[in-house]
Write the structure tokens for this entry.
Amino acid sequence: VNTIREILKVVAQPGMVSLAGGIPAPESFPIDILQKLTQSVLEQYGPASLQYDPTEGFAPLRHALAKDLAARKDIQTTPEDIFIASGSQGVLDAAGKVFISQGDPVVVESPTYLGAIQAFDPYEPRYVTLESDDQGPIPESLEKVLDKEPVKFIYLVPTFQNPTGRTIPLDRRQRIAEIIQARDVLLIEDDPYGDLRYAGQPIPPIKTLAPGHVIYVSTLSKVFAPGLRIGYYIAPQSVRDWLVIVKQGVDLHTSTFNQALAAEYIQGGHLEKHLPHIIRLYKPKKDAMLAALEAYLPEAFTWSKPEGGMFVWVEGPAGYDMQELYHRCIKRNVAFVPGQFFFTDPAAGTHTMRLNFTMADGATIDAAIKKLADVITAS
């Protein structure tokens, strides 16, 4: 945890070009309509928008999300089945509390989302990792794991995964859905980036293929504003009451006012209008990064070519030390995240790095990747 904190401190230094953070570009926030949204929240909901509210979530937001998910992701659900959280991080922590006792096996990808590891770690699980390739986790590996282990749940980020940018193709999703239904295992499907698609066709969430076995988790952080901390989940009947009880103990409920803003943002058609703007903003940045990697990186390096999301994953030759490279790059004012922090096995991933393209413009990305390549070849 502290290592990432240290990296973020370094990133804040003046003159540093950061390809490290996983944060949306400030120019992706719909600042221009925020005043209007605030006005309409106060007019429509008045004091109710400033009052305590049910733990499950603000009713108008749950209604808005149910309609939006049906229209855009083909997730057919009712407002009563949607629960609001303080960012998707809130859901991951709640899942840890509800499901994990010390030593319980939890299945994760390798590498996986660092925030999930941080959410689960306090409950002391034993991580079991899946074998994966450039299309994400291999279903046969999941079967093998489930043959051996009475796992508490599987945690996956199927679309534009953080950190690799990989997307699990439809045939694999179908196979994973079959496996979890046959074995009666719970899957947490974390989908923060699915809306950020710059090429190719959307792939249905695993939730649509195995609704009774998936907790679908998503967030408005990447398509509205992360500071509002609005996440949500749809969980099978058998587990959702527990997740609500756990949240009651933590924060009673997510900010009513922020939920009301989110409800107005979606209901008023603003999300639909604003999403193309975010995509127009990020697509050229992603293209600039892939072009720069192609132009400057030595032959022994390979990288993911995502169709969306916020990240590109780079692998150096086996045994390459990315941490050491990181320290040399910092001196040249370029920051990235060494990939090993995304593995549950501390010895894994030393030859990998995660690059983020949302925070810098194309020319800056090009110059930063060129510097990175210079530092690599100078060693």
